[in-house]
């Protein structure tokens, strides 16, 4: 993708910006019935950006009822594939038209560098919308082998009302991973953005109406997880919750399902992903870049963050020295400065969590070789510098728990078996990577690593065409690819007896 050059001075754009605040329910932009709002704080400077509608249980009920009515009367589900495609393509066009604004909203809301928001998050969200628009008529059923007097076939039917609950690290992109395939399959959706990052989801809801998506088909309900999210997940009229977020909330969602209508649940949860560098790595410079950016991209707030670096003993010192150099060269700064590569963490709470993990690693005897401090305090925001610990032991907290911040733990290994054992020694199984010039070692490793995504001689080198999701406690269900379309459908067998 060609990179967009951003203007250096954001002042004028900021002055013109009117961040959205209202929920999108049944085709209308509305406040909560109670009038409740919450403070939406920008981690860039710690200031309140705007007051956003805080949906309560009754608002959620209204949104679910609107989504149900839209589904049952077929205003979207029953449209032909060409009509559905036209609406989703139009939505992608409108997102492209407003890409600068969406990027600015995203960067302000979560503290990510504006260059990343404009060149990565927003284009990928748009691409996701287009990809599912193109894919929606490539879903085929099956014809069974039947006796001559019978015709049996199986069809994929939309589930009904999908509750999508998404996190704050890639707000619009993660939302589109769920909304696009769910809509493409003919469902109605109630989207609950994270309270830290409601803005682009609200804008998406308004753009979808402008694109011609019928009212009620996509509802957006900003609000607190324990209020709006819980009400959505406990609803008797929601057919599925598609979730990306933390393990503890994922567990609750399964309980809510059990306590309500046994709705389906798909969970994309956290990770503690290992990146393994063998001494025969074919490109140590590329591996060093991947080791540093694999964990520090997006301030480390990435579920697939390569937060455990496993290096073969003979090259460890020289390799780590290069990783430290790459990390030192990252430009930490104001998220709205187009040259910034590393911005603010999403909230004061997330910053303190990262600082606590750093203190724990110090106290448990890991060797801090880079960073470890809060920085840019004068800006009023929540910034933690890239931090690296060497000599991390497998039993230490840093090797076991997800930080979801810019903290890398380095370990050393001496054999292929030891590398695999260390890599798989985690409750998580989202991503893993290995660097080697030996094709047999690479293929053996790809088979032995217990993770939903495995990268060989690269990190995060995949796209919308490939399924995304985890093994073990990283969850179940897949985003991206045609598998995601099937996730939002049920399979119906029909048998017709010929008389
Ligand atoms: P979180 O689980 O606290 O919040 C995620 C969403 O769940 C938010 O919208 C929140 O409002 C909602 N929520 C919170 N409590 C709820 C409840 N009781 N009922 C219903 N909804 C509720 O997670 P987070 O802090 O936003 O995100 C960080 C976590 O997400 C990390 O653990 C990270 O690894 C994970 N994550 C995973 C992926 C992936 O694809 N596997 C991607 C991004 C983030």
UniProtKB/TrEMBL annotation:
Keywords: Oxidoreductase. InterPro entries: Ald_DH/histidinol_DH (IPR016161), Ald_DH_C (IPR016163), Ald_DH_CS_CYS (IPR016160), Ald_DH_CS_GLU (IPR029510), Ald_DH_N (IPR016162), Aldehyde_DH_dom (IPR015590). It comes from the Bacteria. GO terms for molecular function: aldehyde dehydrogenase (NAD+) activity. The active site is at residue 268. Its EC number is 1.2.1.3. Residues 31-494 form the Aldehyde dehydrogenase domain. Belongs to the aldehyde dehydrogenase family. This is NADP+-dependent gamma-glutamyl-gamma-aminobutyraldehyde dehydrogenase.
């Amino acid at each position: 993708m060609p990179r967009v050059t951003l203007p250096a001075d954001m002042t004028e754009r900021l002055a013109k910006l009117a961040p959205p605040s209202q929920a999108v329910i049944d085709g209308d932009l509305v406040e909560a019935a109670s009038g409740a709002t919450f403070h939406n704080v920008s981690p860039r400077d710690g200031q309140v950006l705007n007051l956003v509608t805080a949906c309560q249980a009754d608002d959620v009920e209204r949104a679910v009822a609107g989504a149900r009515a839209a589904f049952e009367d077929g205003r979207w589900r029953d449209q032909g594939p060409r009509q559905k495609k036209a609406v989703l393509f139009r939505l992608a066009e409108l997102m492209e038209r407003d890409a600068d604004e969406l990027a600015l909203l995203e960067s302000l809301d979560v503290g990510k560098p504006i260059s990343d928001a404009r060149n990565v998050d927003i284009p990928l969200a748009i691409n996701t919308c287009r990809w599912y628009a193109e894919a929606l008529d490539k879903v085929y059923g099956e014809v069974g082998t039947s006796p001559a007097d019978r015709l049996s076939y199986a069809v994929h039917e939309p589930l009904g009302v999908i509750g999508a609950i998404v996190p704050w690290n890639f707000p619009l992109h993660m939302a589109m991973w769920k909304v696009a395939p769910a809509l493409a399959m003919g469902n109605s959706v109630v989207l609950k953005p994270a309270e830290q990052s409601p803005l682009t989801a609200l804008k998406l809801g308004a753009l979808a109406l402008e694109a011609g998506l019928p009212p009620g088909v996509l509802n957006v309900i900003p609000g607190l997880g324990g209020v709006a999210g819980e009400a959505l997940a406990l609803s008797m009229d929601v057919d599925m919750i598609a979730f990306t977020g933390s393990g503890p909330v994922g567990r609750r969602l399964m309980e809510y399902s059990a306590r309500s209508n046994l709705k389906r649940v798909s969970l994309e949860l956290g990770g503690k992903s290992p990146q393994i560098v063998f001494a025969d790595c074919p490109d140590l410079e590329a591996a060093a870049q991947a080791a540093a950016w694999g964990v520090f991209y997006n301030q480390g707030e990435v579920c697939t963050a390569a937060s455990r670096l496993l290096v073969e003993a003979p090259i460890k010192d020289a390799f780590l020295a290069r990783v430290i150099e790459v990390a030192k060269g990252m430009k930490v700064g104001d998220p709205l400065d187009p040259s910034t590569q590393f911005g603010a963490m999403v909230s004061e709470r997330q910053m303190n969590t990262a600082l606590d993990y750093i203190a724990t690693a110090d106290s448990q005897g890991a060797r801090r070789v880079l960073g470890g401090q809060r920085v840019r305090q004068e800006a009023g925001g929540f910034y933690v510098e890239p931090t690296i610990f060497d000599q991390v032991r497998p039993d230490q907290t840093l090797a076991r728990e997800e930080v979801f911040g810019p903290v890398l733990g380095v370990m050393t290994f001496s054999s292929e078996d030891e590398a695999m054992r260390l890599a798989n020694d985690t409750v998580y199984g989202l991503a893993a990577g290995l660097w080697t010039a030996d094709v047999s070692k690479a293929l053996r490793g790809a088979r032995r690593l217990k993770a939903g995504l495995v990268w060989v001689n690269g990190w995060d080198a995949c796209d919308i065409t490939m399924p995304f999701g985890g093994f073990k406690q990283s969850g179940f269900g897949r985003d991206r690819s045609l598998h995601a379309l099937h996730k939002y459908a049920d399979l119906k067998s029909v048998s017709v007896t010929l008389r």
